[in-house]
Amino acid sequence: MSEEPAPKSIPESSSSAVNGGRTIEECQDMIQRSLRNPTVKFLRQHLEKAGCGFGDKFIKAVHCNKKIAGGYVRGEGILVCSNHMNIQDEVNQVIIHELIHAYDECRAANLDWSNCAHHACSEIRAGHLSGDCHYKRELLRGYMKIRGHEQDCVRRRVMKSVIANPYCSAAAAKDAMEAVWDVCYNDTQPFDRAP
Ligand SMILES: [Zn+2]
């Protein structure tokens, strides 16, 4: 979130909400429902195993002025932008995406969000592993399903997020993304393990 000190937080620019959005209270209820989502539960278990368990206040609904869906703030938690949420699937996706960032930060003590390659790597993983680019979600955004769309979609969304990092120019974001793409796209932890 842009209000937070930059190196601590990851700006996101993946909001696809076009309607009025939800109130903070409605969004809190949707967050509670997300905690029963199997992928959210799976990631929560793995965070706990890695020593980064979280409590009830870790995921918060907030009103966002910027056109973002949510964000992760180091040491504080996950923010979900209620005014940019309409359906449960959007809330689930924001939480799953941000939990992958939290997981990356937990497993790598030296992760530095002001490092464009570190940020790009976590965005590649979060974009790919969360299912943000599942073709059904891409169709809803108005993108056609084509061969190779998933990687194109992940690239597009990684660029949006990394460019929003005040430490990364567009050129630096692109270079960083290309440099780490293969390693990070194929790094599927913790989804390659039993819960
Ligand atoms: Zn992200």
Care to describe what's here?
- The structure is a single chain.
- The protein is of the alpha+beta class.
- It has one domain (6-185).
- Helix content is 48%, strand content 8%.
- The chain contains seven helices and four strands.
- It has helices spanning 24-34, 38-49, 88-107, 116-129, 135-140, 149-163, 170-185, and strands spanning 9-10, 59-62, 70-73, 77-81.
- It has a four-stranded mixed sheet.
- Strand 3 and strand 4 form a beta hairpin.
- Helix 2 runs parallel beside helix 3 and helix 4 (116-129) packs across helix 7.
- The longest helix has 20 residues, at 88-107.
- It is globular and about 40 Å long.
- It starts with 8 loop residues before the first strand and ends in a 10-residue tail after the last helix.
- It binds zinc ion.
- Zinc ion (ZN) is lined by residues 10, 12, 97, 101, 123, 126, 161.
- One of its GO terms (molecular function) is metalloendopeptidase activity.
- InterPro entries: Peptidase_M76_ATP23.
- Its EC number is 3.4.24.-.
- Belongs to the peptidase M76 family.
- Keywords: Hydrolase, Metal-binding, Metalloprotease, Protease.
